[in-house]
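Q: Hi! First time asking for a complex rather than a single chain. Here are the components, and I think there are two in total. Is that enough to go on?
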Amino acid sequence: MTVQANMAGASPVARRFGAVLPLLKGVAALAAVLLAVELIVILFGIRPYVLPRPSAVIEAILRTPAAYRDAIIRTGLETLMGFGAGALFGIWIGIAFSRLRFLRETVFPIFIVSQTIPVIAFGALVVMWFGNTILAKAVIVFYLTFFPVTVNALLGMRAVDEKQVQLLRSFGASEREIMRKLRFPTALPHIFVALRIASALGLAGAVVGEWFGDTTGLGVLLLQGMYAENMVAIWASILCSAVLGVAFFSAIGLAEKRIVFWGGEST
Amino acid sequence: MSDDPMAPSQQALARGIFGGLALFAIWELVARLFELPSYILPAVSEILARLWTARVALGEAAAYTLGESVAGYLLGGAVGIGLALAITLVPPLRKIIVPAATAVNSVPVVAFSPLILLWFGMGVSSKIVMVAVAVSFTMFVSALAGFDRVDERSVNLMRSFGASRAAILWKLRLPTALPLILSGMRLSTVRSLIVAIVTEMLGAYGGLGWVIYQAVIVIDFVQVWAAIFVASIASLGFFGIVALLERKLVFWR
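A: Yes, that's all I need. Here is the structure of the assembled complex.
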């Protein structure tokens, strides 16, 4: 909050720096943890099978960078496709729910129950339906993404002050204008909170989706590492997943700072 | 607030049930009319029939998975709430614990499952640890937000009346933080079950995830759906119990 308050009067450079701040923070936290683990492993002489040195893990990534790069791109693409579709659908259906009470009361409970279905079980079916394609993973990501976005879009739409709506209406604003200028902007901070949650869920979904058989991706690398009992490879994949996760998270944070420039209730 | 989607009114409840029944009816109709093979979509009636015939095996699997989930849930809750409590009592710890927890949380939690399986083996313990890892961060964040909400002036007031640290914790900090802690616990229920099932699929000796995996291998998709139904019911039950507990404990809300 205080950061945002300071940012209001700051120069554009400082504002841009503020926007990448979450990314820098994430990288700094990661670096600090890696360093601490490195020291602990060396100091206590922990065997590589229990915990390999982070430097060995990074070395493994640098030795075959193409494999890890391809995996990150593949899993990132799956997540992006499913996440984009899920976010759009979630916002759209959330708005529809806020308008149509019958639809909300009939369909919303089904949505809630749908979220108790373990994605892994669903994954087996989706791969059966769509084949072992990138689309199947995107569908799994979509399934995990749309629900939090729907819930928060609905909450956001209801956070609108009815007196403001009546004021706009009394000035002759159409329903479309009220939606565009009042309702949607009010809902945006809520929607962004959900987008951040959804990005983490979506990435996990993409990784799990690859376990049903695929040739590239972070989930594939993880599974190969497990079957080969190669601890360094597993940790390398975990590190790549973390990088991808932080990248998604900060991209959304960046978009939020730009779009919700007046400052939402988040962070 | 009869309009609140989280606390349905009579009419909303009726409509919710109607929606569920309508879904099942459409599903049954589509599956029967188009004569869909069971690997695409089995009819609901077929799934329900399987639920009945395989009730013993599915019940045992559900109990197995629920046991793992609840154990991991309690362990993760203890770790998450414990860390938040540690930060509250020893504020300098915040600078170490919060960045470390954030870094661990930046990894999608399922990415840890191959590692945890190698560390803890195929048995129950690997699932308990995975569930604990998955839920502890949510619990930590919500508990910390709860403890942070405590007004320091109230703490000072109690201290000036000679209250001990334990009394302040028990009579002020915990009741203030309780609503947020419990909502974190409620949110973690479904997640704990899902993570247990996901980990079971990678390697286990029993449980719903194992049942699903075996059924996929022998292409018995009615069994997959039956297991999904059971998992869904188990999640809802677990969620319901914790939500009920929340309402009882936070009665002033």
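A: The radius of gyration of chain A is 22 Å. Let me know if you'd like any chain examined more closely.
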